[in-house]
Design a protein that fits this description.
CATH superfamily of the largest domain: Uncharacterized conserved protein DUF2267
CATH topology of the largest domain: Globin-like
Number of strands: 4
Radius of gyration: 19 Å
CATH class of the largest domain: Mainly Alpha
Number of helices: 11
Number of domains: 2
Order of helices and strands: HHHHHHHHHEEHEEH
Structural class: alpha+beta
Shape: elongated
Strand order of the largest sheet: 1-2-4-3
Length: 239
Amino acid sequence: MIAYREFVDGVRKKAELADAEEARRATIDVVAALVQHLDGADREQLATVLPGKLREDVPWDAPLRSGDQPADLAQEVGGQAGAPPERARYLTQAVLSQLAAQDPDVAKSLQHRLPGDLGVLFAPPGGGPPPEWAAAGADERPRPLDQGELERTLRSLPGWTGTTTGISREVSLPADRLTPLLNQVKQAEKDLSHHAGIEERSSGVLFTLRTRSLDAVTELDVELARRIDEAVGAVGSGG
């Protein structure tokens, strides 16, 4: 678990705040905004590493923001803290970069589950370089597919349908095959630093792919679709 005094003091210094109490409030505001973009397992992971003095003041039961809502974490922090946009971004980066410094594994795991454009917020404020895992892909944004490219791509991905703003595939599997499939998909998401919309159904699972930061299907979605197909083939054959 992260040490409370070390964490808060790190945030205070990075954000150039007056005292520890101001740093504590900033941390609560940032974490409260962050958990709205995390599912139950990721919230639990974050809660486990936070010091109790911070954890107890976070609304962990806040509703999850839908994938259709634009993600602007700094703006959400500004709304809670009553801070202007630039100051809110500075506070957000101070908290998230301190998390990355003290528990890089947890920070990296959380960054994988967030929309790609939120990863840069794990960089220290003031122009410092972001962690290597957050910077990867930040300079090379995935390219959206046009209609012709999408049609050709879907012909090579049996079972996938959709438009340039999102593609999906429903997979029917016996109940005992679902967990192995989702485990393989989770690993693919980590490998690509990209994630799928996953909806479990009585007959199996529905996968939906789109790059939220661009509101489009990109080459990254296509690669994840191929990895999902590979996982379905492996699990379906008993792998």
